[in-house]
Amino acid sequence: MTTEKNSHDPAEPVAFIHGDDLTDADPTPGMHRKLASSSAGMWTGTVDTQPQTVSGWHHHGDHETTIYVVEGTMRLESGLNGETVIEAGPGDFIRVPKGAVHRESNPGNSISKAVLVRCGTGVPTVNVEGPAQQ
């Protein structure tokens, strides 16, 4: 076994965020987001969606978003008139590009839970009236 010398500048120490320490975050009707950490360029948290619930239309500004579905079912509608529909379950990842207007729903009979990571700057969630139009 070899050990390389670290010539980089000292970095911040690793941080721990207990699940009970998450705080309520940027609301969208029908969804309950919680913030774990936010720094320049990255937002991390969770979202819970109740069964048979549809969120309001929204986008995440200049943030790219990755969603990891932990449990339940998550359906996303996006694109022109909301015609692009994907459905994801436990273990699936969803990528939401910057500015993509979408809404999420839980068509299942149990709560859906997901982990969110957003990379970008500015306001993390912008609620809008409806889907992108032609």
Write up this protein.
- The protein has a single domain (22-127), classed as Jelly Rolls (Sandwich), CATH 2.60.120.10.
- It starts with 22 loop residues before the first strand and ends in a 7-residue tail after the last strand.
- It is mainly beta and 134 residues long.
- The protein is 0% helix and 44% strand.
- The strands form three sheets. A six-stranded antiparallel β-sheet has the order 1-2-3-11-6-9, with no helix packed on it. Strands 4-10-7-8 form a four-stranded antiparallel β-sheet, with no helix packed on it. Strands 5-12 form a two-stranded antiparallel ribbon.
CATH class: Mainly Beta
Q: What do we call the CATH topology?
A: Jelly Rolls
User: What profile does the largest beta sheet have?
Assistant: 6 strands, antiparallel
* N/C terminus separation: 60 Å
Rg from Cα = 17 Å
CATH architecture: Sandwich
SSE blueprint and pairings:
Blueprint: E1 23-24, E2 32-39, E3 42-49, E4 53-54, E5 58-59, E6 64-71, E7 74-78, E8 84-88, E9 93-96, E10 102-106, E11 112-119, E12 126-127
Antiparallel strand pairs: 1-2, 2-3, 3-11, 4-10, 5-12, 6-9, 6-11, 7-8, 7-10
Question: What is shown here, in short?
Answer:
The protein is mostly beta strands and 134 residues long.
